[in-house]
Specification:
The protein has helices spanning 12-24, 35-42, 61-71, 85-93, 106-120, 156-167, 175-183, 193-204, and strands at 4-8, 28-32, 49-53, 76-81, 98-102, 131-133, 136-139, 144-147, 150-152, 172-173, 215-218, 222-225. The chain has 228 residues and is α/β, with parallel strands linked by helices. The relative contact order is 0.11.
């Protein structure tokens, strides 16, 4: 069997459809139909990735995400109502790696899962080589980042976004490039996920001597990692 995927969603019909597709696509799939059961399963350490629906009984997907992220760095994809930017942005700010609007197809979800697992697979390789950009020290193969000597806890997507900026330190990187590099998909016109992830990264990193973030927003162009 392939990588183990946890689906946390109370929509029985949709879950069965998705499970059938993912199973045929080579994944091993387990299902939880409410938030409490989903959190317990996610924290068992048996899964490579979790897919969490926002609207669920007992505890909703946002709270489930918060509880999982408190104790685990496992990749998490949120299922959100199409056009519901509020839940989407909150989820990304709390540490979700990506989101898929509902209703969704098994094919789309499988592609998102594979994109995330491809990035995470890099963590299985180690190296002693690191990059230094100001107070930021970066180990690409270990997928580890330190700020001023202290480890920074980043989600898989946050790390990939920061890596893209590190690789082009001092240069502007467009949102379109960041989306393809870090999310494995083209940027949609009204997609604010890159902005939400960048906000989270800024909060986790420290500030420079001038009190400002090391990541600069360049209006209508993208983001830049300052080399100071």
């Amino acid at each position: 069997m392939g990588e183990k995927v946890l689906l946390i969603d109370d929509d029985v019909v949709l879950v069965e459809m998705i499970r059938d597709y993912l199973t045929q696509d080579g994944f091993e799939v387990q299902v939880a139909h409410d938030g409490e059961a989903g959190v317990r399963e996610a924290l068992s350490g048996h899964y490579a990735v979790a897919v969490v629906d926002v609207m669920m009984p007992k505890i909703n997907g946002i709270e489930a995400l918060r509880l999982i992220r408190r104790d685990s760095e496992m990749p998490i994809i949120m299922l959100t109502a199409r056009g519901d930017d509020t839940d989407r942005i909150i989820g990304l700010e709390l540490g979700a790696d990506d989101y898929v609007p509902k209703p969704c197809t098994g094919r789309e979800l499988s592609a998102r899962i594979r994109a995330i697992l491809k990035r995470v697979a890099k963590s299985n390789r180690t190296t002693k080589h690191s990059f230094q950009v100001g107070l930021l020290e970066f180990w690409p193969e270990k997928r580890q980042a330190d700020w001023n000597g202290a480890k920074v806890d980043l989600t898989s997507t946050e790390f990939s976004l920061l890596e893209a900026l590190v690789n082009h330190a001092g240069q502007i990187v467009s949102k379109e490039t960041l989306s393809i590099t870090a999310l494995g998909r083209e940027l949609n016109k009204f997609d604010r996920s890159i902005d939400a992830h960048m906000s989270s990264i800024r909060q986790k990193l420290g500030t420079l001597s001038d009190g400002k973030s090391c990541i600069t927003t360049v209006i209508r162009k993208g983001y830049m990692l300052r080399k100071e």
